[in-house]
Amino acid sequence: MNPQAPVYVRAEDDAWLTAVYYRFHAWSGRRPFWAGLFTFLGGFPIAYFPYADLRLGNVSLAMATTGGAGALIIGVLLITLGLALWFQQAIRVFAGVAAILLALVSLPVSNLGGFFMGFILSMLGGALALSWAPGEPVEEVPADRRPAVVDMGKAESAVGPQGFPGPRETETAHASETTAHADGGRNSAG
After folding, report:
1. How many CB atoms lie within 10 A of CB 46?
2. What angle, rounded to 10 degrees, do the helices at 92-109 and 33-48 form?
3. String of b and e for 94-132 (b: at least 16 CB within 10 Å)?
C-alpha cells in the first residue's frame, strides 16, 4: 500500500460491502499478503496428492507413497507459514527461507512437489516474503523547515537537455572521441 495514498474515511451512505473492501485492502496492505496467500495455497497440493484417490469407473488410482507422512508435514508447515506471514510480519525472512526450502524438499518427497503446482506456488510465496518490506509513512515537512534553494551561479548554465549536467570547460563536447584522445591526448584517472 502506498503510504502517501489518502486514507479512506467511511461515509454514512457507504454500503457495508464497500466498507469491508476498504478495511480488507488496508489490512492486506500492511503485511506480505500475497506471499502468505501463495505459500498457504502451495501447501494444499503438496499435502493432498499423496493421499488422493482418483476413480475412473471401476479403476482406482492411488498415488500414496512411502513419503506420505513427510508430504503431510511439509504441506501443513507451508500452510502454517502462509498464515504466519499474514499475522506475524516480523518473521517474513524466516518464513520466506523456510517456504523455499520446504518447496525444494517437496520435489522428491511429495510427488514432485504436488505435481509442480504446490512447488511453484510455495517458491513464489517464499520469494515474495523475502522481497517484501514494510512501508513507512512519509512525514510532512512544514514550509518553514524545508531546505532553502541554493543559487548555483555558473553551474546552472552548464545544465544540458532534460536537466542533466552538460560538459565542463575542460571536457570535450564531442561524444565520438575516445578517452585516449580527449582533452588533447591527456589521460586522467578520474
Report:
1. 35
2. 20
3. ebbebbbebbebbeebbbebbeebbbbbbbbbbbbbbeb
Give the separation between CA 36 and CA 127, rounded to whole angstroms: 11
DSSP string covering 94-136, please?
Answer: HHHHHHHHHHHHHHHHTHHHHHTHHHHHHHHHHHHHHH-----
Q: Which residues are CB-contacts of 173 (< 8 A; sequence separation ≥ 6)?
A: 167
Predicted confidence pLDDT, tens digits, the chain (190 residues): 555 556 556 666 678 888 888 888 888 888 899 999 999 999 999 988 887 777 778 887 666 666 678 888 999 999 999 999 999 989 999 999 999 999 999 998 888 888 899 999 999 999 999 999 887 776 776 767 766 655 555 545 556 666 666 666 665 555 555 555 555 556 556 5
pTM, two decimal places? 0.62
Instruction: Give the number of other CB atoms < 10 A from CB of residue 50.
Output: 23
Q: Which three cell numbers stand for residue 132?
A: 517484501
Phi (first) and psi of residue 56, to 5 degrees: -120, 90
Q: Would you give the distance in Å from CA 36 to the centre of its chain?
A: 11
